[in-house]
Write a structure and sequence with these properties.
Elements (H helix, E strand, L loop, with lengths): L7 H20 L6 H8 L3 H7 L3 H22 L4 H19 L12 H6 L3 H20 L8 H9 L2 H11 L3 H21 L5 H4 L3
Helix pairs in contact: 1-2, 1-4, 2-3, 4-5, 4-7, 5-7, 5-10, 8-10
Length: 206
């Protein structure tokens, strides 16, 4: 989306509101309001609403900023395929550990692919970081391209809430989380690409 550059004070207020919302969500166990975000950012409520229409919009902007970090990292990689997918996925776990606590409360009743295909920018930037590596990984494994079902599966496995569960509840290290989730992802990609039917009998060990 193109438009006039934001004034420096407008851009500063926007960034302050995004960071304020992130801080509040990281430490709050109850819903927060635009009034609280404005107070945390040191701006008026009117200024906050000039930048964002809702708390959800503020947090989507935060999530988009984190997704941009993932995209930038992905574009910097000279490798491809499974190796790139692993590196990008492990970097995402690092980002979640450092910045993702504010994204944990974000839940939406609408499906991931529905929002992605409608053009939700905070999802698009993350998907753009992953699509090439996922597509190359599928080719490397000699599997047919399954399109955005691959991103859908990755999103399920690498959800910040579940990553924190493995880190904090189970006690795994970042490296262990990355290894185990990548293993499950590869198995899931194979399943999505090759399974036309499921029976319990066929799935039992011989």
């Amino acid at each position: 989306m193109t438009g006039k550059p934001m004034r420096s004070d407008t851009e500063r207020n926007r960034k302050n509101l995004i960071q304020a919302a992130a801080r509040l969500f990281e430490r709050s166990e109850t819903p927060i309001s635009m009034t609280e975000i404005a107070a945390e950012a040191g701006v008026s409520v009117a200024t906050a609403y000039r930048q964002f229409t809702s708390v959800e919009e503020v947090l989507n902007a935060y999530r988009q900023d984190v997704g941009q970090l993932l995209l930038d990292y992905s574009l910097e990689q000279s490798c491809s395929g499974l190796l790139k997918l692993e590196k990008v996925s492990r970097y995402w776990i690092k980002l979640v550990r450092e910045r993702g606590a504010a994204m944990v409360p974000m839940r939406n009743r609408r499906g991931y692919l529905e929002r992605l295909w409608e053009g939700a920018e905070y999802l698009l930037v993350q998907a753009d970081a992953l699509r090439p590596a996922l597509r190359e990984a599928m080719e490397e494994m000699e599997l047919p391209d399954i399109g955005d079902k691959a991103v859908f599966l990755w999103n399920i496995l690498f959800d910040p809430r579940e990553i924190f569960d493995l880190l904090d509840t189970v006690g795994l290290t970042e490296k262990q989380v990355g290894t185990q989730l990548m293993s499950v992802l590869v198995g899931g990609l194979r399943g999505f690409a090759t399974a036309n039917a499921f029976t319990a009998e066929a799935s039992r060990s011989k």
